[in-house]
């Protein structure tokens, strides 16, 4: 192992959705992972309310940073850099993190690194299993995204192989949980119920798996509708809905397609490592089936522990540390939040380095969010 004292000490801030995450890493070693979640405040709405999330980030930011520094046992002045999620995510929520990161970096005289949330979900696995092999195939499955990505360098080269054409995988879990009256977020509770159900009880459709369908794209909206109709029909007939079997059969349909396509992409591209990240990677059946199918195909599977799969600050710090280690330029002070930052931009340098993002863009996005 490299001398830890030489590895960059980086603090990462994540505020793209409802988790205020602050993590501290030294190279690929995790030192602190403090998360304050506003999920309970959104539960009664059945989804994340952007304004509520932004306010909660503002309140949680300074205490969560203090907690992370204490947990890591380091002083802010010792940091080699501050990384922050610059996008994609909720515009107002991202702005809180970006503003905080700028304030701390400026006050401490440290370099600032704007990073991509999706690349961070991949890079976090370095904290668990060491340096990412190059290339790595990544299946990224969260509440907002479902993509297959091929990366040869997580700080500069992330190539999309396929993505969902409608709902994200996590979104499908959340919607089905709502139909079953299981609360929000849906993933963890469906995971629990499914453990006691029969995954073969109901044959739900596998989206985009026909011979003429795109090999690496996903679709979950047909599945969602099929499950909702099945439940409605049961209720209309006055029959009890077998919640555990529905949860297990629905979950199986999702993870079957995800793992099948991910393994196929690895084989087609000759890549022998698959990484799975994002909130849905916390799913126990996805982890088990991926392990089974990867083993059968001679592919090494890397999935971080569940706490590092859902949104957190350590993943941002992990990518920031990789940026520092690889000598990437720090971001400019005019770094802006970009709610629709493309997955192909792992690193956001700021406008004066020719990136083309500007403040007007943030204001436009923020307005869109308010009125949509
Ligand atoms: O990555 P994440 O924390 O936030 C986003 O960037 O979206 O992912 C949140 C999503 C939610 O849709 C949640 O229901 C899902 O991840 N999730 C799960 C599990 N834990 C969280 N889905 C399936 N099984 C789980 N155990
Ligand atoms: Zn995420």
TrEMBL record:
| GO molecular function list | iron ion binding; tRNA N(6)-L-threonylcarbamoyladenine synthase activity
Co-factor(s) = Fe(2+)
The UniProt annotation places Fe cation binding at: 117, 121, 311
Q: What class of enzyme is it?
A: transferase
Short name of any one Pfam family annotated for the protein: TsaD
Q: What is its EC number?
A: 2.3.1.234
Q: Cross-referenced CDD domains, in alphabetical order?
A: ASKHA_NBD_TsaD_bac (cd24133)
Please list the reactions this protein catalyses: L-threonylcarbamoyladenylate + adenosine(37) in tRNA = N(6)-L-threonylcarbamoyladenosine(37) in tRNA + AMP + H(+)
Gene Ontology BP term (one): tRNA threonylcarbamoyladenosine modification
* Residues annotated as binding substrate: 140-144, 174, 187, 191, 283
Domain Gcp-like intervals: 30-317
* Residue segments, region Disordered: 337-360
Q: Spell out the subcellular localization from the entry.
A: Cytoplasm
Indicate where this protein is primarily found.
Answer: cytoplasm
Into which family does the record put it?
Belongs to the KAE1 / TsaD family.
Which PANTHER family does the UniProt record give? TRNA N6-ADENOSINE THREONYLCARBAMOYLTRANSFERASE, TRNA N6-ADENOSINE THREONYLCARBAMOYLTRANSFERASE, MITOCHONDRIAL
| Chain's role | Required for the formation of a threonylcarbamoyl group on adenosine at position 37 (t(6)A37) in tRNAs that read codons beginning with adenine. Is involved in the transfer of the threonylcarbamoyl moiety of threonylcarbamoyl-AMP (TC-AMP) to the N6 group of A37, together with TsaE and TsaB. TsaD likely plays a direct catalytic role in this reaction.
How is this protein named in the record?
tRNA N6-adenosine threonylcarbamoyltransferase
């Amino acid at each position: 192992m490299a001398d830890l004292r030489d590895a960059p000490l980086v603090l990462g801030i994540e505020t793209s959705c409802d988790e205020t995450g602050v993590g501290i890493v030294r190279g690929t070693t995790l030192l602190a992972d403090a998360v304050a979640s506003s999920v309970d405040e959104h539960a009664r709405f059945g989804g994340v309310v952007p304004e509520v999330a932004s306010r909660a980030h503002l309140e949680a930011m300074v205490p969560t940073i203090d907690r992370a520094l204490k947990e890591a046992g380091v002083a802010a002045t010792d940091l080699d850099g501050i990384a922050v999620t610059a996008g994609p995510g909720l515009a107002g929520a991202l702005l809180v993190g970006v503003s905080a990161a700028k304030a701390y970096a400026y006050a401490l005289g440290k370099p600032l690194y704007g990073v991509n949330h999706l690349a961070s979900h991949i890079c976090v696995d370095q904290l668990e299993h060491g340096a990412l092999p190059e290339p790595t195939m990544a299946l990224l499955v969260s509440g907002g995204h479902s993509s297959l990505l091929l990366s040869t360098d997580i700080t500069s080269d992330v190539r999309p192989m396929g993505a969902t054409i409608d709902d994200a995988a996590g979104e499908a879990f959340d919607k089905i949980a709502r139909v079953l009256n299981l609360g929000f977020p849906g993933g963890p509770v469906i995971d629990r119920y499914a453990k006691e159900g029969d995954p073969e009880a109901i044959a739900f459709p596998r989206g985009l798996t026909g011979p003429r369908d795109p090999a690496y794209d996903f679709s979950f909206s047909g599945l969602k509708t099929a499950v909702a109709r099945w439940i409605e029909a049961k209720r209309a007939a006055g029959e009890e809905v077998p919640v555990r079997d529905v949860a297990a059969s629905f979950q199986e349909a999702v993870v079957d397609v995800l793992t099948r396509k991910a393994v196929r992409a690895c084989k087609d591209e000759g890549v022998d490592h698959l990484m799975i990240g994002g909130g849905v990677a916390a799913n126990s059946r996805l982890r088990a089936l991926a392990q089974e199918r990867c083993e059968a195909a001679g592919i090494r599977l890397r999935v971080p522990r569940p706490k590092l799969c859902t949104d957190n600050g350590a993943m941002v710090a992990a990518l920031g540390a990789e940026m520092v280690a690889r000598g990437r330029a720090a971001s400019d002070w005019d770094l802006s939040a970009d709610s629709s930052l493309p997955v192909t931009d792992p690193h956001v340098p700021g406008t004066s380095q020719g990136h083309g993002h500007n403040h007007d863009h943030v204001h436009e996005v923020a307005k869109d969010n308010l009125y949509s």
